[in-house]
Amino acid sequence: MLKKIVFTAAIAAVIMGGPLIGNALAAPDVNTAISNAQTAADTAFMLLAAALVLLMTPGLAFFYGGFVRSRNVLNTLMMSFVLMAIVGVTWILWGYSLAFAPGNPFIGGLEWLGLNGVGYEVTDYLKGSNPAEVVSYSPTIPHQAFMIYQAMFAIITPALISGAIVERVNFTAYSLFVLLWSTFVYAPLAHMVWAKGGLLGLYGGLGALDFAGGTVVHVSSGVSALVAALVIGSRKTYPDRLSPPHNVPFILLGAGLLWFGWFGFNAGSALASGQLATAAFVATNTGAASAALTWLILEKVLRGKPTAVGAATGAVAGLVGITPAAGFVTPLAAILIGSITAFVCFYAISFKHKLQVDDALDTFPVHGVGGTVGAILTGIFATKTVNSQGADGLLYGNPKQVLIQIGAILIAYIIAAVGTWIILKILDATVGLRVKEEAEFQGVDINEHGEEGYNEEFSDRITIREK
Fold first, then answer.
1. Which residues make Cβ contacts (< 8 Å) with residue 76, sequence separation at least 6?
2. What is the reported pTM?
3. Which fold does the domain 37-466 belong to in CATH?
4. Lesser CB count within 10 Å: N end or C end of the chain?
5. Calpha distance 419→9 (Å, rounded)
6. 8 Å CB contact between 45 and 277
7. Which of the two residues, 241 and 55, has the higher pLDDT score?
8. Residue ranges per structural domain of the chain
């Protein structure tokens, strides 16, 4: 009887234990499981960040659209929206390769045209000419996740320029301009600052700190906006007949969407979920809040009333200022950066009005000046205690970093200004830059797009109020 029991138990053990033993042998080791979990988390984080950055472009459209006259609101919205179509295609065909593929210190090569070799795998990216050299910007996300995240930066950057030239530009010429600008100005600057082997950045370059686009996005677009305003010329009604913003709620909505999307812009630039993304997220919100508060105080003290437009403009200025610094500075430093940037931008707008330059929506005073101030302050407040892969700034014993930041800013100014001037001159000589004078007075919406933003009754009320 005992033998039968033992025999039966042995058979049961074999039957039930076999699958358990097989599963144990087939199961991945602990390190692989951890790596897979990290990859899944980082990929989800980066795709969400990319979506947030894309949302910033419609947010910018509403922000800009609220400022212009009602008869030009659709055209202003389209000047941002169309970038999602144009760069959404060109970035795949050639933009990403020129910005991030192995190349020279100034521009990427052609290895990744049409996303050739840019796959879904989580591995080191395509090898360069030297088999020992690999190009990898993040080892825990698919190559295409990094590519599409960077596409969102390439989309919104030229859209920023439109704020300086609204209400007077031929839409065809504008579309050609942003296509050429994103190719010949943005892509080289992105390569020089962010790509491995680039002239200015941390990956073997000058060592300039630009966490999420102070020079690449804001300095370049701001300077280009100023050049465009000067080349294209003022609106026919400037400065004698300027109308107030036609829709302040649009402005607040746009600023809110920009603030929301900016978390993807800055925190996503950590290229992984974790401590650095958290630091950038906190710095982003802190800098924006500090700047908005500073702007409101300045308006109250100097002009008697804090305005909704001022709150929105101050928040955007703070977001611009903190962008290059977000992943390198402490929260207390972010407060100072936001406040200082708002203070300088506030007076830059006043100075622009004195010069009577028709940068219609203050693109250079906010993005050009704000990006410049933020980049310099990054060289002052940066610390390796926040980001060990960065550098210490002036306050942490490294005054050289400020000089490096200024050098990178100057190079960005030159590339953006010269490139923009050349592109605009070519387009002016071929397709023409401006709408006809009667179209400008009648409204760009109906003349360029054949439609209007508001129905006739509402438009009449707006027109009467403007008069």
1. 61, 64, 65, 67, 68, 162, 166, 167
2. 0.90
3. Ammonium transporter fold (1.10.3430)
4. N
5. 82
6. yes
7. 55
8. 37-466
